[in-house]
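Notes from hallway chat w/ T.B., transcribed later so I don't forget. T.B. wanted the structure written out for a chain they're using in a teaching module, and asked if we could keep both sequence and structure tokens in one place. Agreed to drop them here.
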Amino acid sequence: KDSVLGERCRVSSSMLEGATLDADVNVGPFAHLRPGTHVGSGAHIGNFVEVKESMLGVGVKSGHFSYIGDADVGDDVNIGAGTVTANFDGVKKHRTIIEENAFIGSDTTFVAPVRVGKGAATGAGAVVTKDVGAGEIVVGVPARPKPKKTKKKPA
């Protein structure tokens, strides 16, 4: 309904409402793209992914079971299964920004407003409550920088 699909898009058993898809986007099955969604070329939005009021860049992959609401997602970001952008604090909606080439581990929850820097990564199950720097890896609840491994000195 009221959506625009670019050339060579494929939508399988999904609902699109007020969404815009650039060329070569693959959606579904059972995805729901709500008003204000714009998906960049070559992206894949898989089964049971819901997207609302979000801009997804070129080559973004969100394979399954995720909610992406009020987010700006850069090019070539991989969003793991079960990812949620928690965008509402009970009073106001906030945005999540994920910069290009980030890797989002399965079951990551973003408590907006937060920003994930270019090339950053989250571990599975991370709850991101603070900004993540470019190239940084965060893990845990709440998410914090992954400890660096130290080499043991020979005895």
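Follow-up for T.B.: The CA atoms of residues 14 and 30 lie 5 Å apart. Might be a good example for the class.
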